[in-house]
């Protein structure tokens, strides 16, 4: 998909971008928003406030084909050429650092489930790595889950379960998530997402 086509679909114009944004982020803002707030219509998660280390790793994975190469990963395949617009590792770092310092956004909740049950499930299966309130843990290479958007998290868990994500031998942390995702039922996932929505 061309950059012009993405602009047309998203309804953004370059003149509407955050003028204080990292220049290398401009191509990303077409889908992920001028302030990293995400765009559910574009299936693009919110990125603001996410760990710089996690963001840089995922961008490198898209650039190298570790992520987005599975034939069923439609949105990952769209990310591959976009990540490749970042000229080098320094540009990746600048974008990751820029997004990490932005304030996290409150994302709209699309999931309705028992958040109290989700709290219990989250603490049993997710909290040890991703933090009690889903804010992530850089020491464990675990990204923040709050503020990303429940539709995106739902899709990624499905991708981990199906082997669409986390199957590449070079994706160490993705492989860990693939194993963890297999322990979470669909009903439990909806409850966990409902709990995370309350932490926004």
UniProtKB/TrEMBL annotation:
Pfam families documented for this protein: Cytochrom_C
UniProt KW keywords? Electron transport, Heme, Iron, Metal-binding, Signal, Transport
Give the molecular function GO annotations: electron transfer activity; heme binding; metal ion binding
- Please state the span of the N-terminal signal peptide per the UniProt entry: 1-21
Task: Describe the location of the Cytochrome c domain by residue ranges.
Answer: 11-103, 113-200
Q: What is the superkingdom listed in this entry's lineage?
A: Bacteria
Quote the PROSITE patterns the UniProt record gives.
CYTC
The name on file for this protein is Cytochrome c oxidase subunit II
């Amino acid at each position: 998909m061309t950059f012009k086509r993405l602009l047309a679909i998203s309804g953004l114009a370059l003149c509407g971008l955050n003028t204080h944004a990292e220049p290398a982020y401009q191509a990303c803002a077409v889908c992920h928003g001028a302030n990293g707030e995400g765009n559910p219509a574009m299936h693009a998660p919110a990125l603001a406030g996410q760990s710089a280390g996690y963001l840089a790793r995922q961008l490198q994975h898209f650039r190298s084909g570790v992520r987005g190469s599975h034939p069923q990963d439609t949105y990952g395949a769209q990310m591959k050429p976009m990540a490749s617009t970042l000229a080098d590792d320094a540009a990746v770092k600048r974008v990751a650092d820029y997004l990490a310092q932005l304030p996290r956004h409150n994302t709209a909740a699309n999931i309705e489930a028992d958040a109290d049950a989700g709290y219990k499930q989250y603490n049993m299966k997710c909290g040890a790595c991703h933090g009690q309130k889903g804010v992530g843990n850089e020491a464990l290479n675990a990204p923040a889950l709050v503020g990303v958007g429940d539709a995106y998290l739902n899709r990624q868990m499905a991708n981990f379960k199906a082997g669409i994500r986390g199957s590449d031998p070079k994706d160490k942390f993705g492989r860990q998530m693939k194993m963890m995702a297999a322990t979470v039922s669909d009903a439990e996932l909806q409850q966990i997402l409902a709990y995370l929505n309350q932490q926004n």
